[in-house]
User: Fold these one by one.
Assistant:
Number 1:
Amino acid sequence: MPLASAKGMLETAAKEGWAVGQFNINNLEWTKAVLLTANELKSPVILGVSEGAGKYMCGYKTVSAMASAMVESLNIKVPVVLHLDHGSYEAAKACISAGFSSIMFDGSHLPFDENIEKTKELVSICAEKGISLEAEVGSIGGEEDGVVGMGEVADPEECRKIAELGVTMLAAGIGNIHGKYPANWKGLDFSTLERIHAATGSIPLVLHGGTGIPADMIRKAIALGVSKINVNTECQLAFQAATRAYIESGKDLEGKGFDPRKLLAPGVAAIQQTVKDKMELFGSIGKA
Ligand SMILES: [Zn+2]
């Protein structure tokens, strides 16, 4: 099965009241863990690739070739989306030519008119190629240079203007942030989410920074129009904890425990468990 656009699955999810998880990948093990879990649970899935992760994995062409080949050789039967996460205009174009099936153009830091203009241009390029496109309004907070932002809130009117350009899905800040949430975090701003949903009609909304948002808030966000939820840090923390436990218990010193295929296995299993828990919470199991 070739890589899929996110359009159909997100429209169905929005209509039926569930959400598709985007799980960011970092290497072959990560990708394999996410794909096998999605396939086993019959859930559609979105593989997220940040610009940094793309560079780390030797470029977008390598990532695209790996994902496509893995879908084929693992005989994955569920729809798999390969999605650029928080891409610049240049990265968006590079991923389109590298074979990605979905793009996020993050123009949220640009002057609004420039965000509109560049998003518009990418809408027509993506439409022609059958690629889904995510746009962002109002930047999403998170830790940057040690400063933790509380999460910005997007302007519903700006959201309406971007949604009307014909993007597939829209990321809008509603108090969510990337990375771990600080202890004094105030929670998601549901009244803003309601106003954004009302202003943008039926367009699927995207919730970034899915790590650490309590389950009841996730369910409420889905009920209010969120159809795609990004998970990144949570898989990293699960991988780290399991790898640390393996080494601290001295398993790498026993027999062939140093073999990378053994050393990385507990981390991979931990990613799979995290993906499964999220798919259960998002309601995507059995929807492929
Ligand atoms: Zn994000």
Number 2:
Amino acid sequence: MNPYLNLHPTSPFGERTNPISGFHPGCDYRPVDKKTYAGISGIVTRAERGSHGEVFFVQVQGKIKDTIFYANSYHNENNFVQKGESVSFDTVVAESGATGITTGIHIHHEIRSYNLSSPFIKKLMGLIPSHIEGNHVFLTLINFINISIVK
Ligand SMILES: [Zn+2]
């Protein structure tokens, strides 16, 4: 079961004008019970804790059909996992919070991949909203989880 189906999205993936302009490369969610999920099954590659008001975030690296993806969650109050840990897409990896630049408690979750030439990425980009930036592509989280569960 995709845990993000139960969360209320507060700011969608895509171009936005308020309160911050530019492309929003992830989805924002109002957490339930302050839970932040991994988003992909794999290994925790970063679990960072700022000490001067910086954003706390968790990055999980997972592989689907020979393509490597990174799922990042930001603004966490507390990270519950450490680098090197194995997690499932629905593992609670952090307590949601409002660290870093934000107007309140929310989850900012994004999925990216650097394997721009993989056939699977090309297929995904034709199926779900995506955005290329430099050497990587951002994909919409909720659609991505559905596809990765069904894979
Ligand atoms: Zn966001």
